[in-house]
Amino acid sequence: MPHDPLDGWTPPPADPEQPAQVRRILALFRPYRGRLAVVGLLVAASSLVSVASPFLLREVVDTALPQGRTGLLSLLALGMVAVAVLGGVFGVLQTLISTTVGQRVMHDLRTGVYAQLQRMPLAFFTRTRTGEVQSRIASDIGGMQATVTTTATSLVSNATSVIATVVAMLALDWRLTVVSLLLLPLFVWIARRVGRERKKITSQRQKQMAAMAAGVTESLSVSGIMLGRTMGRSDSLTRGFADESESLVDLEVRANMAGRWRMAAIGVVMAAMPAVIYWTAGLASGPAGQGVTIGTVVAFVSLQQGLFRPTVSLLATGVQMQTSLALFQRIFEYLDLPVDIAEPERPVRLAKPRGDVRFEHADFAYEPGRPTLRDVTLTVPAGSSLAVVGPTGAGKSTLGYLVPRLYDVTGGRVTLDGTDVRDLDFDSLARAVGVVAQETYLFHASVADNLRFARPDATDAEIEAAARAAQIHDHIAALPDGYDTLVGERGYRFSGGEKQRLALARTILRDPPVLILDEATSALDTRTERAVQEAVDALAEGRTTITIAHRLSTIRGADQIAVLDDGRVAELGTHAELMAAGGRYAALVRRDADTAAADTPAGPAAGPGPVAVAEGESLPV
């Protein structure tokens, strides 16, 4: 089971009535308060215009028609048409502005979450399913679209309409108004209960959708399809997906039906209110009552019917807002994640980094109490090379990843040209340190686009030169589309060695003064390794190079070789010095030679066949 990325972190209370959370949601709209003020004016104007029609109707019924005043009738009719036109114009303008504001808020949320995730440490992504992250950005924020684009404006518009309509109803007849509003508190209470139910179900539904999206992302990737088919698990995966989908069906039905009968009952009662108004007006017009004119009754029923729509809409909006709070909470959880690796307030910028790297009593632990690196002290002068070897789990890759701040030390420090890397601005550090990892990642784009990711302004000639240096140009040129060839999902149209050479070309194009080579030739056969090693040697010339060694044959010429064991530097020296010492490194070399001799077939054509001695550890999962 994957770890929850939020383990160890306590989110703020999810109570939708808590003022702090309400203020936080309202703060999303603060940058657009000018446009919202215009919307408010349009809403107020629209509400005032809409309540004018019943009063015009009363004059038609009580004065113009009984007295046969055709001139007045024409003016009143023209006024009713003008009211309708103005209401339509105000409505269109209001929708345009409010939708624009809502979409800008959606944009702010999406980019805010994406930017926050870009700042998260590498460890966050090693314990988080990709589909979960995608679901939060796409599904959760998409589910809030109705709230941020229309709900807020609908709330203001309907509230204004209700207030204006109630005032107009009181102006017509206070007794009929009291009868009309008797059940309103009950309706509000019902709507709030329905909203709480839907909020709870929505939270469950989004978690289920995230789980299903994560499963789809994993099982329908190229690696997932290959694994499923070769293991004969395709049918099992399909059944698992069907079960997840079935659970989602149940939650969707529950979410849509929660409180549906109660809300329908509210609609029925409010639709029947005209009958109650007629009955009440009849009683008020009896022998013991004060008369109510026909025009007043007709105008009042018209207002009451006008009150029906915004009131029901207000109740529905309240339910929708409660539902959306579950989505807001999930987004806020990501926005509130602590950023362990942050740029300092006053970062240091290196104009021309030399490449002097030092590890000064560096400690690192993925989990408290379980150190991966312990008191590592190493000096890599500018332009020199350091090779790091050791058994699996010794901390070799972790040591290399401390330099570009993929992780931060938990003790001691790592410096570049005498400056703690934690004090450098991210751009300077990224320009100074290039990483070629064991697992090469390529985008589903053309070869040229993948290479140009390192330098967006690179010319075609510079891209080709980088590819030649990495010994991959001839292969690319032989493809039907050349550098415009799509590499496929994660580069699966290319072999492991070809992808590794593309990664080298990408780093060559970036031209950093410090290179971290994390077993960069581990995926290559012997012949390709020799060719790529030549490219690596040419690239490393004059640069500071830290090589996480997979094959000992590639690091014998290193200026320094550090042997890590249990997170500590057990040995340090040149190849000749360490061989003469007869310690751990010498044992690794002897084992390498014995394994190579056992695996190399007899015959003069057989190559030296260097093999892996100690595989590098992968990122912790």
Q: What can you tell me about this protein's structure?
A:
The strands form two sheets. The chain has a six-stranded mixed beta sheet. Strands 2-1-4-5 form a four-stranded antiparallel beta sheet, with no helix packed on it. Helix content is 60%, strand content 10%. It is built from 23 helices and ten strands. The chain is elongated and about 120 Å long. The model is unreliable at 1-18 and 602-621 (pLDDT under 50). Helix 2 runs antiparallel to helix 4 and helix 7 (145-172) runs antiparallel to helix 14. It has 621 residues and is α/β, with parallel strands linked by helices.
Write the layout of secondary structure elements.
Layout: H1 19-27, H2 33-50, H3 52-67, H4 70-119, H5 122-126, H6 130-143, H7 145-172, H8 174-181, H9 184-219, H10 222-230, H11 234-257, H12 260-271, H13 273-284, H14 294-335, E1 357-367, E2 370-380, E3 385-389, H15 396-401, E4 411-416, E5 419-420, H16 426-432, E6 433-436, H17 447-452, H18 460-469, H19 473-478, H20 496-510, E7 514-518, H21 526-540, E8 544-548, E9 560-565, E10 568-573, H22 575-581, H23 584-599
Parallel strand pairs: 3-8, 3-9, 6-7, 7-8
Antiparallel strand pairs: 1-2, 1-4, 4-5, 9-10
Helix pairs in contact: 2-4, 2-7, 3-4, 3-14, 4-6, 4-7, 6-9, 6-14, 7-8, 7-14, 9-11, 9-12, 9-14, 12-14, 13-14, 18-20, 20-21, 22-23
